[in-house]
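Look over both lines before class:
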Amino acid sequence: MQLFKSSDAILRSLQRLAQLSYLLFALPLTTWAEQQPIVVLLSSAEQVGRAANDQLLMGARRYLPADQTLKVVRLDDFAHFQAAWRATVQLNPKIVIGPLHKGDVQQLIQASPKIPVIALNQSALVHPQVWQFAATAEQPVYQLAMHLAEKSMTELLMLEVSSSHANRLSHSFLSVQDARIKERLMYQDSEQLLAALYAITGYHKSRRRITQLEKLLQEPIVSMPWLRQDVEALVLFAPLADALEVSHHVDYAWGQSFSLYWVDTGANAMSDYVRSTPNWGRMKSFMPFYQIEAMQQQRAKQDSFFTALGEDAMRLALMRLSHPHALPKTSFKGATGYLTLDDEQRIQARLPLVWLGDGQVEIVDDMSVAE
């Protein structure tokens, strides 16, 4: 009889344990699903730079809603990518942002992820769960080449600063444009800028002729130096400070009869974005919105490309979570440009064309976008 009571007690204890297990494990499952984090997977700092990772995180956190949780997995903390990805999956994320390094993106796709991912670079491979940012440094020059072709501008001058980045951009431009480059000149630094500008525009030759005539006539001549009229535009590869200087001189010499296009080669000081000179010359450039807004607001540009990339990645992640079964059909305005998703699920960015002149910064090819 005592044994029976003991068995009965054991049965009741098992029932209570089952109820307790339900309370401890079954009920919190819905809460656990609600608390799934968004995970940012950062590539090795040695591969992409510590500053790039820090800026990506800053941009992602800036757009993170208050009711969402963000966790970070750093490849620096693991021996190889597979270990980092296993740690990411163990966090049970609702979506992953990253990685940035192209090689990491390729390994990610080879792992056949079952979690939606917003990759910050692209690989030759594709996967239905992975949206890949297809942004490249050459995007402004590709758009510029298309723009010049649409405008039927075929006679160009090229002036570029001597730097590895400028050289890369100019070579990319030459590889895709159909115009005739009448003359191409390179200058070493800002001190050589005006001499190079005068040389490529023919200013010095004309100035010498005027000086010779003044000596021959022994009296001053009221005349503006002649500038070459066999070209339609000057394409300038330079940092912002040099571009502002060139735009002022070109506008003074040619007025509106000549077009100046600027391709930003970087290495800009934050103060360069403050509009300290109201009489800028006129020039056009393809640039991202985070840069446009800094110039329009007359403030130092504090955001980098990676900050803007992190912000746009978070925007896309939230969009994907809210519409998991419907891909966006229209473009929307992001910090890095007008963003669209193509058939391979690559995120393409189109930069707006911006007109800079007389201290104004205006978008001249705005398009209807779905916010």
User: Anything to note?
Assistant: Residues 40 and 72 are 5 Å apart (CA to CA). The radius of gyration is 29 Å.
